[in-house]
Amino acid sequence: KFKKAEEALIFGDTLSAAGEDKILLITARGMAIKFSAKHLSVLGRSAAGVSAIALKEDDYLVFGAIAEGIK
What we know:
Elements: E1 22-27, E2 32-36, E3 61-66
Antiparallel strand pairs: 1-2, 1-3
């Protein structure tokens, strides 16, 4: 469930059970964040999701990936 009608899911993947994966997110305005999956909390089916990056009003996420091989 999204807050606004124009919102959409652009990335979804499974993570290792050990939580050692790194997640990379990049926005249209060139902001990027890489963080460890172990910092994410486990959520149930009815949860609202996780905010991984704060976006400015005119920015949006263009890329998300499990960053394999990046320390």
